[in-house]
């Protein structure tokens, strides 16, 4: 039997290794990513097969190290912007789609960092095609918050090579004590579920899902499984608000991406859908 395009895409990459080694990198060598890697990454993005339709686009840009695009570190020459509408499902989908690109970049040996608090003025200067309405006031960070006109860059990421030398003390602390620390699957299970009650393919996928990055490593996702073990939902608690990050639904999309990749690597077919419930994104996986 011929493999589906999704299966072929999954088979070509060691996604588990990419998830395990991906880190949020804030110190880069100031050199361009080689042309071959950029070409391979663009080809992957152009041919990416996902289990749902979406309107997310990924734009590449060249940054200026002498300008402040990122609030906390110097920009390397290359970067990607994840463009989507600004309703909650679209924002969460940007997390899912963007993480596929970031993990693939990781598999190519490139470093990245999900970043929402970028300078909109600087991003529009280096990527003028992203401009929507120059008469609108510029938010302090990112595109702002709430539903706004047209599509926006929900997040961006640098794309380059990790420079370990010269890390700031705050980066070393983050690296040692926060960025890599993840709670066990049991911490995210709802309604009295335990890991012992889960079949191996769901437990494996949850293990990948819990390793998703999140704003300030908040890990605000919750996992629910139906009694027949056929329907799984991933969302954040109703009413959850992050103290610093305006778009925690991006993180839920990233988490859902990891879970779906886990199912695919275990050859478990599923239907994937996304809804907005109580002001938050809810990802549903029907096995």
Structural class: alpha+beta
Mean pLDDT over the residues: 90
**Number of distinct helices:** 8
Radius of gyration: 18 Å
The poorly predicted ranges are 172-178
The biggest sheet, with number of strands, parallel, antiparallel or mixed sense and barrel status, is: 4 strands, antiparallel
Text of the CATH class: Alpha Beta
What CATH calls the topology is NADH Oxidase
CATH architecture: 3-Layer(aba) Sandwich
Order of helices and strands: HHHEEHHEHHEEHEE
- Share of helical residues: 25-40%
Number of domains: 1
Beta fraction: 15-25%
Large-scale geometry: globular
The CATH homology group name: NADH Oxidase
Q: Strands across the major sheet, in which order?
A: 4-5-7-6
Care to count the β-strands?
7
């Amino acid at each position: 039997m011929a493999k589906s395009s999704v299966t072929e895409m999954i088979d070509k990459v060691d996604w588990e290794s990419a998830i395990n080694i991906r880190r949020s990198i804030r110190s880069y060598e100031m050199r361009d990513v080689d042309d071959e890697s950029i070409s391979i990454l663009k080809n992957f993005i152009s041919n990416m097969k996902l289990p749902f339709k979406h309107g997310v686009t990924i734009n590449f840009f060249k940054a200026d190290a002498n300008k402040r695009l990122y609030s906390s570190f110097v920009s390397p020459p290359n970067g990607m912007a994840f463009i989507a509408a600004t309703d909650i499902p679209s924002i969460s989908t940007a997390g899912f789609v963007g993480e596929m690109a970031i993990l693939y970049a990781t598999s190519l040996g490139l470093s990245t960092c999900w970043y929402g608090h970028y300078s909109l003025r600087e991003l529009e200067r280096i990527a003028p095609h992203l401009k929507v309405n120059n008469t609108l006031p510029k938010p302090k960070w990112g595109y702002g918050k709430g539903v706004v006109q047209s599509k926006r860059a929900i997040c961006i990421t640098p794309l380059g090579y990790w420079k370990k030398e010269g890390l700031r003390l705050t980066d070393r602390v983050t690296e040692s004590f926060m960025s890599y620390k993840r709670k066990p699957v049991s911490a995210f299970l709802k309604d009295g579920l335990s890991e012992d009650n889960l079949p191996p393919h769901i437990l494996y996928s949850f293990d990948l899902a819990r390793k998703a990055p999140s704003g300030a490593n908040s890990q605000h996702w919750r996992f629910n499984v139906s009694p027949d073990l056929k329907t799984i939902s991933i969302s954040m608690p109703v009413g959850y608000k992050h103290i610093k990050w305006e778009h925690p639904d991006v993180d839920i999309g990233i988490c859902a991406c990891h879970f779906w990749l886990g199912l695919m690597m275990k050859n478990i077919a599923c239907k994937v859908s996304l809804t907005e419930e109580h002001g938050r994104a809810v990802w549903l996986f029907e096995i």
